[in-house]
Each structure stands twice: as structure tokens, then as C-alpha cells.
Amino acid sequence: FDTNDYAVDNVYGIPLVNKKIPGLMDENNDAIMIEFIRLRAKMYALRVNGKKDTKKVKGVKSNVVARTITFDDYTRCLNEEIEMTRQQSCIRSKLHQVYT
């Protein structure tokens, strides 16, 4: 477990350990997670006490997630079983041909 970002006198009494491979990492750095919503694999949002909401969606650009998707959208999709879509543009190349 990577506990390098924990306080020296943490409430759990866990010793500080640097990043080890293979290992797990605490994304919240000893902060308390208030709410966690997971809609599918690699698509989740979490709310941590004293921090900004974290939203992750694989395959969607980070600026699209930050600007157009809210924590409440995750909650609505979970509770009301609705599907939401967002537009995104990207420039890619395939076999040296650039397209959007």
C-alpha cells in the first residue's frame, strides 16, 4: 500500500511506505470518502470530504468530463436508469492519414 502522502501521526497507525510495485494506492490521501457512484467498469465518480469531486470516464477526454458532466449526472443515471451522451472532437491519424 502506498501511504507516503499520509500524515506521520495518522489515526490508523499505518507506517509511511513509498510507492511499491505491485501495490495499491489510496487516491484520497487519508481523507474521508462521502459518496461513491460506479456506473460501469472504469466509469465512476467520488465525493471526498474537503476536496473537489473526482469524475472518471475511460475514453472520454478529461476536459469534456470536467466541463459537461456533473456528479449529479452520475446520480441521475444510477437512480433513474437513463443514458446520457456528450459530444467530443479529436484529431487522430491512421496509417499517416489525419482525420477528425
How are the strands of the largest sheet arranged?
A: 1-2-3
Helix content: 10-25%
Would you identify the regions where 5 or more consecutive residues have pLDDT less than 50? none
Strand content: 15-25%
Major sheet:
3 strands, antiparallel
- By DSSP, the count of extended strands is 5
Tally of contiguous helical segments: 2
Which helices and strands, and how do they pair?
Blueprint: E1 33-40, E2 43-48, E3 54-57, H1 62-68, H2 71-80, E4 92-94, E5 97-99
Fold and architecture overview:
With 100 residues, the chain is an alpha+beta fold. It folds into two domains: 1-26, no CATH class; 33-80, no CATH class. Helices cover 17% and strands 24% of the residues. It has helices at residues 62-68, 71-80; strands at residues 33-40, 43-48, 54-57, 92-94, 97-99. The strands form two sheets. Strands 1-2-3 form a three-stranded antiparallel beta sheet. The protein has a two-stranded antiparallel ribbon with strand order 4-5. A hairpin with a 5-residue loop joins strand 2 (43-48) and strand 3 (54-57). The longest helix has 10 residues, at 71-80. The mean pLDDT is 88. One of its GO terms (biological process) is DNA biosynthetic process.
